[in-house]
Design a protein that fits this description.
Layout lengths: L1 H12 L15 E6 L6 H15 L7 E6 H13 L5 E3 L7 H9 L5 E3 L4 H8 L10 E5 L1 E2 L10 H4 L4 E2 L2 H13 L4 E5 L7 E2 L2 E2 H9 L6 E5 L8 H9 L6 E3 L7 H7 L5 H14 L4 E8 L6 H14 L3 E6 L16 H24 L5 E9 L5 E5 L5 E5 L8 E9 L3 E7 L10
Parallel strand pairs: 1-2, 2-3, 3-4, 5-8, 8-11, 12-13, 13-14, 17-19
Antiparallel strand pairs: 6-7, 9-10, 15-16, 15-18, 16-17, 18-19
Helix pairs in contact: 8-9, 9-11, 12-13
Amino acid sequence: MNEYDSNRIIDFTKKINYNLTQNINEADCYILNTCHIREKATDKVYHDIGRVKKEFKNKKKPIVLVAGCVAQAEGDILLKKEKYIDAVIGPQSYHQINNMILKLEKNTKPLDFTEFEVIKKFDTLNLIKNSENKISSFLTIQEGCDKFCKFCVVPYTRGAEFSRSSAELLSETQELVNNGAKEITLLGQNVNAYDYNGEKLSDLVIKISQIKELKRIRYTTSHPNDFSDDLIQVHKDCEKLMPLIHLPVQSGSNKILKNMNRKHTVEKYLEIIDKLKVDNPSIKFSSDFIIGYPGETKEDFNQTMELMNKVKFINSYSYIFNPRPGTPAFHMKGIEKDLAKERLFTFQNLSKKIKTEYRKTLFKKTMSVLFENKTKNDNQYFGRDEYYNSVIVKSNQDLSGKIKNVKITKVSQNTLFGEVVQKLIHKEFAA
């Protein structure tokens, strides 16, 4: 979502004649857009600001803004601790960034824009065309979360769940398509909670899929509690909807899920997966896991390992529990650090093994690949298959923006290599 927000900030600032530069020493304004989900986010802010200070040590100081979730959560601390920062602006207030910059041009004292104004933000966004011209583009359809998992900062940095109108989203999608987008990823902190006047995510997917020039649709990130039967059905009915679902579970233990306030069980999670596979057997899954959550016993951890083995996630993102300031879990004591590291190591080894086994099955298979750009190497093009695997091929033709059938000739841990073929792929996906 940060990439989408950053792109829209660029669109805003163009209105006051600020344009993106690749050379930091040319900048009149430095904007650091931040995420607060993972640990050390605040430390990274100070590190990046230090880099700017060093770069402009003997030059005129640029306007320095910290935007995003770190600004929302710790903006007052940032302004007090680092005097080089001129302003902080929360993720729901960045539609005010032009006014902020114009005030700072007049040497106004440090500014704090961290009030939740999500409705005003999206009303303003609708007036500014999305100029992103990537083959695979992002589109924020929903923000905020009402689930209040004990470990998560999102409800406190992004606020309550809010959904944009389908008319606005269809218009913005068409803009992106007109700019060359062939694939759209629908974004939300809890994307499948999308609900605008009774319209659900499934309804939105169907509407967007009717844009002829758009070839692929994805969405992330989902919550199991909002994975409704109509969304399951659209995975069967909509050919443009890609068969990879990122569905965070966090733990394989019902006890830990309850302690996290996840409000779902492992059984409920597996029921969703079974339903999806019945309707579309080609579907595969990725997920998030927190290892070493307070109260996690050896049995709880083993249950998480069992879930990984059962579902066979083709990708997983796992972290040791790190208490985030402002969350109910902040004062909870996790398990012993060395034990947590040991469990994370064990879990990630299993995850890597499953991923490797899956990727071996792709050797000599033919995949449908959307190519995004030419690489730095001559005649090599980068793209992604239906399951978001990175694919590289050699070609004397410009493949950017094209969907081609690719026979996989080499498999590595992170990249597939192949050659373009003319073989037709049946409606069901190859993997």
